[in-house]
Amino acid sequence: MQGTILVTGGAGFIGSSLVRTLLHGTEARVVNVDALTYAGNPDSVAEVALHPRYRFERVDICDGPALRRLFTEYEPRAVMHLAAESHVDRSIDGPGDFIRTNVVGTFTLLEEARRFWSALRGEARDAFRFLHVSTDEVFGSLGAEGFFTEETAYAPNSPYSASKAGSDHLVRAWHHTYGLPTLTTNCSNNYGPRQFPEKLIPLMVLNALAGRPLPVYGRGENVRDWLFVEDHADALVAVLGGGRPGETYAIGGRNEMTNLEVVRAVCRLVDEMAPDPAIGPREGLIRFVEDRPGHDLRYAIDASRVRAELGWSPRETFETGLRKTVAWYLENRPWWERILSGAYRGERLGLGSAA
C-alpha cells in the first residue's frame, strides 16, 4: 500500500493502532488528523512521531476550510475516518458533542473528500477510497442467539449509537448519490494497550491495581464480542486494500463474554502479574451497581464476509489479547498516570446527570 492516507482520530485508541500498523506494515505516508480532545493522546503515537512517513495535523473534522487545506496539501489516495466521540456513558450525559463530531463532522469530512475526489482524473480518481469506521452498536440489541451481519437492520438505542448510525447513513448516501467510493466497517468491542481508562477493561485493570471497587453494571450479564485492537487495525488495512466501494464489512473477534466474565478474567491476571497481599484476591473488589439507561443486552458479529473476501482473521484469542493488555498497563504506568492526573479520575459516567 502506497500513497498518502489521511487518518482522522489517529491519536485515539483504535486510530493510533492503525497509524502504527500503516507505518510499520505498508509503504504509505500517514497524515494523522486529530483535534486532541480528552481521549486523543499524543503519547499514543509518540513512538512514530519522528517517522519519515508520518505527519500530524491538529484539526477538528467540523472545520471545513482546515480539512480543505489538508486535501490540497497532501493529496491523499485514501481517507480512513475514525475520529468520533465513542463512549456510551458520556453520550448519555452530554449527547450534543456526539451529534457535532459524529454527524456534523462526518458530513463535513465527506463534503471535503467529495470536493477533492471530484477534481481528480484517471487512475487517481479510480484509486481513491473513503473508509468510514463504525460500530456494531448501531444494530441495537441481539437476543440470546444469532449474529449481526452486513444486512442487519439498524436499531440504535443510545445517543452514541444513534449518532454513529447517522454517520453511517451519510456515508452510504454520499456513495449512492454522488458516487464517492466509500467503504464502511462495523466492529465489535475493541480492547488492548493505550485504551482510555473510562472503558471497561482498562478501568478494571487500574482499579484492581489500586485496590478500588470494580463497578459492574446490573448483574454483569450483558454480552459483548471482544476484538483485539491490533487485529482490528489489520482488518481495516485489508478492507481499504481490497474492499468493494459501497460495501460494508462487519469485523468481530468471535469472543463473546459477559461483562462479569471479563472482569473476573482481569482480576485473575492482575492477581497473577501484580499480587498484593494487602488487597487480596481482586474478585473481592467487584461491586454490582445500577445499570446504565438503555443498556443493550448482547452484541455479536458474524465476520465471515471479511474473512472470505479479504482473507482476514484475528490473530489473538481473548485470553492472549487480554494478557498482553494487562501486561501493557502494568509496564506503562506513566502513560495512564498522566491521564488520571487530569480531569478524568475514573468516576461513574452515564447516569444522565447533565440533563
What does this protein look like?
The protein has 355 residues and is an alpha/beta fold. The chain has a domain at 4-191 and 228-254 and 297-317: Rossmann fold (3-Layer(aba) Sandwich). It contains twelve helices and twelve strands. The protein has helices at residues 13-25, 64-74, 88-93, 95-118, 122-127, 159-178, 200-210, 229-242, 259-273, 304-310, 318-331, 333-340; strands spanning 4-8, 29-33, 54-57, 78-81, 129-135, 182-187, 189-191, 214-217, 223-228, 248-251, 256-258, 286-289. The strands form three sheets. It has a seven-stranded parallel beta sheet with strand order 3-2-1-4-5-6-10, sandwiched between helices. Helix 6 (159-178) links the parallel strand 5 and strand 6. Residues 343-348 have low confidence and may be disordered.
Fill in the CATH topology of the domain at 4-191 and 228-254 and 297-317. Rossmann fold
Approximate shape: globular
Named at the architecture level, the CATH assignment of the domain at 4-191 and 228-254 and 297-317 is 3-Layer(aba) Sandwich
Mean pLDDT: 93
Q: What multimeric state do the chains show? A: single chain
